[in-house]
Amino acid sequence: MRKAFVKTLIELAEKDDRVYLLTGDLGFHALEGFAEKFPERFLNCGVAEQNMMGVAAGLALSGKKPYVYSIVPFVTLRCLEQIRIDVCYHNLDVKIIGIGGGFSYGTLGSTHSVMEEMAILRTIPNMSVFSPADLLETEELFLKTYENKNPAYFRLSNIGQYEVYDKNPNLEIGKPNVVKDGADGVIVATGLMVSICLDIIKKIKNENNINLKLLSVHTVKPLDEKLLMEQISDFKKIFVIEEHSVIGGLGSIVAEVLADSGYGGILKRVGMDDEFLKEIGTADYLRAKHIVKKNGAIEDILNYFK
Amino acid sequence: MDYNSISKNIRKKILKMKYESQEGHIGSALSCVDILNVLYFKILKIDPKDPLNEDRDRLVFSKGHAAAALYAVLSEKEFFEEKILDAYCKDGSKLAGHSTRGSVPGIEISAGSLGHGLPMASGMALAGKKDNKNYRVFVLMSDGEMDEGTTWESALFSAHHKLDNLTVIVDYNKWQAFGRTNEVLNLEPLAKKWESFGWSVKEINGHNFLEIENVLSIVPFEKVKPNVVIANTIKGKGVEFLEDKLESHYTHITKEDYEKSIR
Questions:
Q1: Which of A59, A176, B95, B233 has the fewest CB atoms within 10 Å around its CB?
Q2: Per the database record, which ranges form the Transketolase-like pyrimidine-binding domain (chain A) (predicted)?
């Protein structure tokens, strides 16, 4: 996803000299392509993320289109007040790129594995929150948000080779995408969980002949709630899964929408429990342990929908 | 009109807003009046009729809690009609206790939380350099803002990028919310701190119009360095019973004091 981001940003910067890339001294072996091509528009702001976000706001107030890059914890929570006031209160064209979403840097521990930021950022007015499932979603959402002038946050994963689509999905901002149709139940997912669930659904179809529908909620905010209801409310059971805290993330969002609608079925929310990591591990290890529940995922989902 | 009369008008407007709204932060507003006066009536290349002109000088008002002073000087400079000031801190009004961009013409940023103005101003100054524009960016900061980590992150950044089109003015009235700055969190030696971060520093009396005008007329002080003016000021300046008193941060003006002070 990081490669998709850099490639797309270079394309944008080639045709638009307002595009700037700011980093908090991270992105080694990733951002060099941009830095070499556009040295005047590449700013390594040093390990000073609060200033970096303020500088981005100042650039945007002066007609630039800054993209602010770092790994998730430092480009979100470290400079949260700058995001809230400098960027969102002023409603500026600042795009925030968080790399290493979820468990991507799991071996580095809880300082680097943020499970709360989508919940926090989605409560800030004017902010949009994107959590793309794969390279194609990342590219499309990037190009779509380039067209607008509002704040946005991208949660990107950089560990794992996940592919959901063979061809461009033609996404629209705010509209959950039906990755696969099915009549026996629905799974609502975001980020890398979409591709993981797609594999699980295929297996369940082959082995048990249960046909599940899968949604990718690439835009966590704003969300077309009416469309989401049309996509899921006919099912008696809904399963939501995300690599994020169960508090405030996609599970909470779906629960809010369903509760407001008077939905009478059952919702299961799967995500990270309300705790810090007690042990570290690779992203696959931690996903298996905390989210997909190693070897139990298929069984869990099967039992749920039976 | 001369500087003295203008400052007097601005102070009267501030006191009227503060009396009618019964809001605090009076001392913080009064200490920066003379600096704002010289900036708006002599230094800044601005046009009240074209407040968003791309080539304008920017005054980033970072000490947002002193908003009444900014509103007063903007009305004095005829960015908007004086009667708009009547809305200050009233229900349903846009004229908040902290200055907000878009509420009235002439306000560059929304402020209120300390230490946000300088990073944003650095971005504006950098954009000006990149675009080969001649505009200058001035930032009015409180001494309380010198406590914030962002101030020093930004001090590094602006010196590194040689932003000599950027000038910080510290309204150094030596009081912060809980006491004297040297008792709460000592800033001294403040000039040396800025110097060591690569800034060009001048120190002045922030109530002496000539000193203010002279120093702000010669920026940049040195090529390729950002500028800082440490303006020694008096909290509550111009209102005898408020001068150099911590209470001026919190007090509400009585009718009697109000009538006495606007004479």
A1: B95
A2: 1-164
